[in-house]
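Recap from last week: sequence in, structure out.
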Amino acid sequence: MGALLWRVVELYAGEPFFTSKQLPFTYTVKGRELFCDRKEKSITEATVTRAYEKILAAQAAGDPIRGPKRLCMFGAPYIWGILKGTGLAG
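Predicted structure tokens:
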């Protein structure tokens, strides 16, 4: 699942996304890191995969995650924006 998820992330690089607070951002991908134009530090492939797994687990438990705060990880607003914007979350 991680490789397919990361491929989706790569395909959408450069497209406009929004955080849950409606702040616009785009990102680039270099190797296994994602760089948002609003942030200096990168978000790793492993972090994106972990976030997606957490979203799926919460959904399976009947308690879907509806925003980035419950992800409790670095870059959550951007990860949430990407996953929601691509239809993979929310």
